[in-house]
Amino acid sequence: MAGDWRSVEAFDEAISVSDLSEVSHHLIRASDGEKIEAHLVFFTSSAFRLKVVDLGDRALTGHIDLADALRSAGCVAGVNGGFFHRDGRPLGLVIASGQRINRFETSRLLSGLIYGDARGIYLIRRGRFEDRPGIDALLQSGPYLVEAGRAVRGLSDAATASRTFVATDWRGRWLLGAMHARITLAELGELLATSGLLAPWRVDRALNLDGGSSTGFFFAGAADRSSVILRPRKAVRTLLGIVPR
């Protein structure tokens, strides 16, 4: 599956040593020439903290811009967050700015958690999570895509959709990614588990976030670069971003 894909351009070596990098990375499938573009932000947990932005009832209006909301929260980058009900209520536990919203859930979909505190950022299986004071940002989502460097077995290879995800080498390097390319969860897991396709380093674990029409991406840019924005096609409830330590 992943062996059918190759990177159009090599990753810059600076990404592996930089605290913050953004790239628009392209892949091509050898069998049919299909091309996809992935928007990626690489960052380190030593330089950035996790930030969950809850849009609350404002999400139902559909008038909240992802980039504006992340900027207002002080985020230098971010993506859309976890899943939510039609009435805007989030699926699973959410902690935004220390405030707990909804509850911990055990449905098959919500198999992992991405969360942060003053010490660092963590991505773990639902069954390994130990709740404690001090967690100020958390999203329960799923499914788990990569574990111990390998694509998780049993991921769906049927439905294709746009995708949003978070990944780490579990050594302090992290990745937020989004793509408006129609791929399956099984394909995404394989791509992330294959070094050089979606990251220049070995992905140890990765978690799927709400994709499809919710897929969104933001990078604030720098003095010599403009912002990069991929807007969701529908309103979303939560956003997952990063702020400087």
Strand order of the largest sheet: 1-2-3-14-13-15-11-12
Helix-and-strand structural type: mainly beta
β-strand percent reads 35-45%
Number of helical elements: 2
The oligomeric state is single chain
Give the % helix.
under 10%
Give an overview in words.
With 245 residues, the chain is mostly beta strands. The chain has one domain (2-244). It is 7% helix and 40% strand. It is built from two helices and 18 strands. It has helices at residues 66-72, 185-193, and strands spanning 5-7, 20-29, 35-44, 48-54, 77-80, 94-96, 99-101, 112-116, 121-125, 137-141, 144-147, 150-151, 161-168, 173-183, 205-208, 217-219, 228-230, 238-244. Strands 1-2-3-14-13-15-11-12 form an eight-stranded antiparallel beta sheet. Strands 4-18-5-16-17 form a five-stranded antiparallel beta sheet, covered by helices on one side. Strands 7-6-10-8-9 form a five-stranded antiparallel beta sheet, with no helix packed on it. Strand 2 (20-29) and strand 3 (35-44) form a beta hairpin. The chain is globular, with a radius of gyration of 17 Å. The mean pLDDT is 93.
